[in-house]
Amino acid sequence: MKTTVYFVRHAQSDNTNKDEMTRPLTEKGLQDRMLALNYLKDKKIDAVYSSPYLRAVTTVQPLADHLGLPVVTEPAFRERATGDTAGIEDFARLQWADKNFAAPGGESFLQVQGRVGKAFMALNAKHRGETYVVGCHGMMLGTVVNYFDKSFEYEQFQQVRGLMPWIVELVFEDGKCISLQSIDPFNV
Predict the structure, then answer these.
(1) Is 0.70 surpassed by the pTM of this model?
(2) Stretches in the chain below the pLDDT threshold 50
């Protein structure tokens, strides 16, 4: 029995708003989120989850509306807490190089991976044999891909860092990941 999850990284957000919880999508992001809807609308989705952050919810909301499903927010799917990164050059590269590194008040790569993994595996058990979507964030999704594909490191993350939205399909059978596919919705 196969379980499929589509992680959907949010579309372009308005970085002039520094509040993680309320940062909205840009006009471009509002248009581009429709790419995720168009790719996923025929995939027989059973449930839609999201980070509670507005940009993630707003990205998957049209899909949920199209399917007549609610968007259920799950705090574990939020983006990593960066903490005080003042004076830290190339913070993202440092976190990928040392997966235990965390700025004061922030989370390490491995802490994010553990937080997300626990919630993700609970959903896989709940939705065994079904297909569901998770609206999420770039670095958070990078930790998921790295967990299942150890060759996905900083260099590969850099290649998709600007891809908003970005979709990753994971297929599980008997609790094991049997397929991982990165999808560029701008080129499908």
Answers:
(1) yes
(2) none
